[in-house]
């Protein structure tokens, strides 16, 4: 098969983020940081996955609040609407139509193997048809914009493999190179640990929120679990939660120096925790100020999402036209 047709211009980078509450350091170093970095390559599309959120969040005012929060978070953390297209997933309903087209070539067995579905069921989430077909909607998100590169966390790799299989299968069945086969890219920090040493996750209640501040932030940082090695004794930085979190903010030279201090003894965990607290506060200070300002200008945020959706929707409409023609339908439905 020849190389699939690519949209014009540089490679399309795309990723989605579920509006599922307050962002934490795991989200930032595992996802957001990479998104912001990749916007420099041009042609990046980022969206708030509110259709996906409905599989687990069925409360209209909470959904609205979470969408607003994640929009503020991304813009405050550096998403630049002049560089990246930023929009709400549900402002492009064409992805739902594409989900259908993908569903007719998707083997049931493929979805039955989805690890994230099994994990969600184990957590007690209802096994709705929507939750089961979640990977198809995600594939549609990626393929609707004929994306090339999808930055994601490790937990999403299986979904990307499914997306690649679906794109290939669609192209093969309908004998048309409609979709490029997307690649994924993992973040440098595949697993940020939480204050208890497990993977940082909202569902484990072990997070450090990016926009926590003052006493609340101090309380969480000071409660990071450590062992009971005495201050005077040597400590292993590679087994220390505080060191792992602290090093997210440190450069190589500072890390080497801190490692030596751990190994030499005489360093208390409390001191490293205080250092971590200072790092978090200064690293996110500018973002915190931007977030405050944006929160008091909701119409600016709305305008960013609206104009992003206009651009995204135009792309999705173009793809849908190709898809509809490939399967033997009219390119666009009768208006
Ligand atoms: P949570 O587990 O808190 O519900 P999500 O599943 O909403 O977080 O994660 C959103 C994004 O952040 C995903 O791309 C995921 O891979 C990334 N992410 C979440 N937690 C971590 C972590 N502890 N380390 C690295 N990346 C993470
Ligand atoms: N499923 C992703 C997550 O939970 C969010 C998402 C939805 C996404 N659609 C996407 C990510 C498309 C990348 C591409 O993190």
Summarize the structure.
This protein is mainly alpha-helical and 335 residues long. It folds into two domains: 12-192 and 298-327, Rossmann fold, CATH 3.40.50.620; 202-287, Tyrosyl-Transfer RNA Synthetase (Orthogonal Bundle). It is built from 15 helices and five strands.
Report on the architecture of this protein.
With 335 residues, the chain is mostly helical. It has two domains: 12-192 and 298-327, 3-Layer(aba) Sandwich (Rossmann fold); 202-287, Tyrosyl-Transfer RNA Synthetase (Orthogonal Bundle). It has 15 helices and five strands. The strands form two sheets. A three-stranded parallel sheet has the order 1-2-3. Strands 4-5 form a two-stranded parallel sheet. The longest helix has 30 residues, at 298-327. Residues 18, 20, 26-27, 30-31, 152-153, 155-156, 189, 191-192, 199-203 line the site of adenosine-5'-diphosphate.
């Amino acid at each position: 098969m020849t190389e699939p047709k690519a949209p014009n211009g540089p490679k399309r980078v795309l990723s989605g983020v579920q509006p599922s509450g307050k962002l934490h350091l795991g989200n930032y170093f595992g996802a957001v940081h990479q998104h912001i970095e990749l916007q420099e390559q041009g042609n990046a599309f980022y969206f708030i996955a509110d259709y996906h959120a409905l599989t687990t969040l069925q409360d209209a005012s909470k959904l609205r609040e979470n969408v607003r929060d994640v929009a503020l978070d991304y813009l405050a953390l550096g998403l630049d609407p002049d560089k990246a297209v930023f929009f709400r997933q549900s402002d492009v309903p064409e992805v739902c139509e594409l989900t259908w087209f993908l569903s007719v070539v998707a083997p049931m067995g493929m979805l039955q193997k989805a690890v994230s579905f099994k994990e969600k069921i184990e957590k007690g989430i209802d096994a709705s048809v929507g939750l089961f077909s979640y990977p198809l909607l995600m594939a549609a998100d990626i393929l609707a914009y004929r994306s090339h590169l999808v930055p994601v966390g490790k937990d999403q790799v299986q979904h990307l493999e499914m997306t690649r299989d679906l794109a290939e299968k669609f192209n093969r069945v309908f004998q048309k190179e409609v979709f490029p086969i997307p690649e994924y890219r993992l973040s440098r920090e595949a697993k940020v640990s939480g204050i208890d040493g497990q993977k940082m996750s909202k569902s484990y209640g072990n997070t450090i929120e990016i926009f926590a501040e003052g006493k609340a932030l101090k309380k969480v940082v000071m409660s990071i679990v450590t062992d009971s090695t005495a201050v005077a004794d040597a400590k292993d930085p590679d087994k220390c939660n505080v060191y792992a979190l602290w090093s997210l903010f440190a450069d190589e030279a500072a890390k080497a120096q801190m490692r030596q201090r751990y190994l030499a003894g005489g360093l208390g965990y409390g001191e490293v925790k205080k250092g971590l607290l200072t790092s978090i506060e200064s690293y996110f200070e500018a973002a915190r100020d931007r977030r405050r300002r944006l929160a008091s200008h909701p119409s600016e945020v709305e305008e960013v999402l609206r104009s992003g959706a206009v651009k995204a929707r135009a792309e999705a409409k173009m793809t849908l036209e190709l898809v509809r023609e490939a399967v033997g339908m009219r390119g666009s439905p009768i208006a």
